[in-house]
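2 proteins. here.
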Amino acid sequence: MRLFPNSRLQDFFAMKGENEMDTKKLLRYTMQLAMLKQLLTKKLIDENEYLLIQKRLMKDYGIVSNITA
């Protein structure tokens, strides 16, 4: 039984083997993005620096869409 019919979310939680690397990569990206957001919140970087670094992280990790926007 699928908890999320017609959804890739179920597949995301079931990742194993070769997809484990993708999961770790996504986790590292998410952690770096969270740390970057903390820098912005604490005003250690400005909005332009945040966007520049975020764009670079997306490129480095192969993220094509910003779902946080």
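next one coming up
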Amino acid sequence: MQAGKVYRIPCKEFSGTFYCKTMPWKIGNFYYFSADINIAEINFGEIDFFYANWVNIRLYKEFEFIRKESITEKEQNSIPRFFRQSFYNINDCKLVTPGQADAIPCSPEDCIGLERAVVYDSIDSICEKLISKINGKPTWDHEIMRLRIPGKDKPFDFNAKPH
């Protein structure tokens, strides 16, 4: 995926518009505008994105291409970090930095505040996540995906019934 491409994400059933700008490390930076805007006047490199994560390359075919922009120095220096954690062993936690070959082993406490590293592979899943970030309501898989801290949490019980 070529860095700097800007796409409109077709999230139906939600007011406002989501955009995605591809980054050099194969991450999508996501932006939200609640009102109609003149897209030609927006420089996405000057605004802060509200969410970042991986998107399956096939999914970009379902996004609406808007234009290509250069990557600003600010964007180059704002590489996000994510976490991976075993569902069965909460002490098995790793830091994931885009562009870095291997995840770094760490304690779960080092990952507090980070987003879980995921790859979205459907419009429904990415729209559900983006909408949940805007309206502050967790997605249906929030409990499975959240970071667990030793001493406070237990490994995820896949046999438990959802609330």
